Structures are given as structure tokens and as C-alpha cells.
Amino acid sequence: xxxxxxxxxxxxxxxxxxxxxxxxxxxxxxxxxxxxxxxxxxxxxxxxxxxxxxxxxxxxxxxxxxxxxxxxxxxxxxxxxxxxxxxxxxxxxxxxxxxxxxxxxxxxxxxxxxxxxxxxxxxxxxxxxxxxxxxxxxxxxxxxxxxxxxxxxxxxxxxxxxxxxxxxxxxxxxxxxxxxxxxxxxxxxxxxxxxxxxxxxxxxxxxxxxxxxxxxxxxxxxxxxxxxxxxxxxxxxxxxxxxxxxxxxxxxxxxxxxxxxxxxxxxxxxxxxxxxxxxxxxxxxxxxxxxxxxxxxxxxxxxxxxxxxxxxxxxxxxxxxxxxxxxxxxxxxxxxxxxxxxxxxxxxxxxx
Length: 352
Ligand code: SF4
Fold this sequence. Notes:
Layout lengths: L9 E3 L2 E3 L6 E5 L7 H13 L4 E5 L3 H13 L4 E5 L3 H10 L3 E4 L7 H14 L2 E7 H8 L5 H21 L5 E6 L3 H14 L5 E4 L5 H17 L5 E4 L5 H14 L9 E4 L10 H12 L7 E5 L5 H4 L5 E6 L2 E6 L2 E7 L3 H11 L1
Parallel strand pairs: 3-4, 3-10, 4-5, 5-6, 6-7, 7-8, 9-10, 11-12, 12-13
Antiparallel strand pairs: 1-2, 13-14, 14-15
Helix pairs in contact: 1-2, 2-3, 3-4, 6-7, 7-8, 8-9
This protein binds iron/sulfur cluster.
């Protein structure tokens, strides 16, 4: 069991973030915000994929107007993503944002930041202070050596948190992002050591989904295993539903996601493999896709090591030449010819 870091608990609409509250998956819409119907459709897809918060960018006045309509059409709390414009932040808060994602570094005027804080307090809106490596570079207007970036990001975060706290505002979630795995780990450890606010984890510009998967899993997985991280977003250039899927896989691997579907375990296969395990696993995956129970099914390639390796599964199929042994909770219950493996497995699942 992973021991989560003790933090303050921040409410984002109906969702609690921090301490022992489940790690929240979030993603971001990728259609124009002014296209309300498409935006709502994508938000609903993301909720179905496991997101409990969804972020929407509001760069123009027309977007905050659309945002107000979108808020009324969905059940999930929405986060307004704001850059540069204090007006957009205040408009989004007034439109019903449950949280605003803000990089105070790109809102130059202190008075403007205070205006946003006061509006957020009045509307009970949480704020995520987001610092990223690129904005640190912009702030310095000169190249910042790699070894100094983490310290600079932490210094900036301290400055912003002090400003929010000076206005008695503590509904904060903190995030510091880099596109580098090691710096992401380093800066988030620093934030976890310095503050007791919940942390949002992410790796910026992680790449196409197939390229984003591994660095995101390493960066976020390392931190989550240390108990650091209360919400996560996988950034990938593609369908945001894929982002949610990857996030879910990371959390599932760490035992931080309560599954409501079948978990399929497949042996890597070796020279002992009795039948085409991959083909069988694909058929099993297709057959159990719609089952909404947190069951663990194992498809193993032999009866030598298979039963031992699948002992923790609710149901296991261990293949031998032209046949399959079916195990339920580690106990052998039948032997069937290869072409009857799937029907026999489904029959057992029905009993379960
Ligand atoms: S279960 Fe059997 S076939 Fe599969 S990897 Fe292990 S030893 Fe090889």
C-alpha cells in the first residue's frame, strides 16, 4: 500500500483533492471552447474514460461566455485554463469554474492577481498555481542553466503562495511542470517538502500518445509511489481520452485506482507456450470488454508455471497443447479443448 502524503484537502466543486482522497484523473478538452456542443460531448467522453475533473481553455471573451453555457450542461466540475488575462480568470470564476489554473508569472500586475484571488474567494473557486520551466526562462529573459531551474521554480512558487496566503486564500493546488522526467520528479519532491497543499502532477509536452506513455509513467509513477501527487494529467498530442486511459493505467499499476472493469493479465510467453497465447488473450479481451466488475483474469501459456503465476487471479486459463486448463481462485476446475476455452471461461464468469 502506498502511503499518501498528508496535505490540506481542497474542494473543487464536488471533488475533494488531497491527503487520503483518491488521486483524481483530469484531462483537457481539445476542441474550440466556443463550439459548446462538441466541447460538452468531449467532456462527457472524458468522464466516461475516468476523469473526475476536466479543464477547458478560455483564451478569449467568447470562450468564457461559452464556458458559462458548458458548466450548465455537464455534471463534472470544470477547471478554466487561463493564461495572461486577469479578465478571463474573473469571467471564468463568475461563469462557474470550480477551479482556475493560473500561472501568476504571466499575469504581470500584482493588483490583477489580487483581483482574481478576491473573486475566487467570493465564489468558492479553487486555484491551481501552475509554474512551469518555460515561464521561468521567460521570467529571467536569459538562458537559465539546467541545475538552477528547479531551485528557481521553487522560489517562484514560494513567492506566489505567499501572495495568496497574504490574502487569506488557501484553496490552492500546486503544480510545477517540466518536459524532463528527472526535473519533474525533483521539483515536485521540493514542493512536497515545502508546502502542505495538494499537488497536481503532469509532464508537459510529453509527445504523441505512444511516446508520452513511458516518460509520464516514470515521472508520475515515481512520485505517486512516494505518496506525492493528488491529481494527475497525462499530456499527449492526441485524443484526450487516451490521456485519461494512460493516467488510469499508471494509477492502476500502483494500486491507486479502483477498477470497475476486468484486469487482464497475460504471460509474456516463452518456449513452453502451448498455444497462440496472444491470439487467445485478444479473444478473451474482446469477450470481457463489457463486464463492469473488478475481476482479474489471467491468460497463461503453460501448465508448468502458469497456475503459480496466476494464483491471484479470479479466473485463469493455462494453455497446454490443443487444450486449456481453467482455474478459479487458483483451483483447477476443468480441462477443455482449445476451441471451447472462451465459452467455458464465459460460463465461469457468469457464475461469478
Ligand atoms: S506461464 Fe508458462 S508459457 Fe507463459 S511465460 Fe510463464 S513459463 Fe512461459
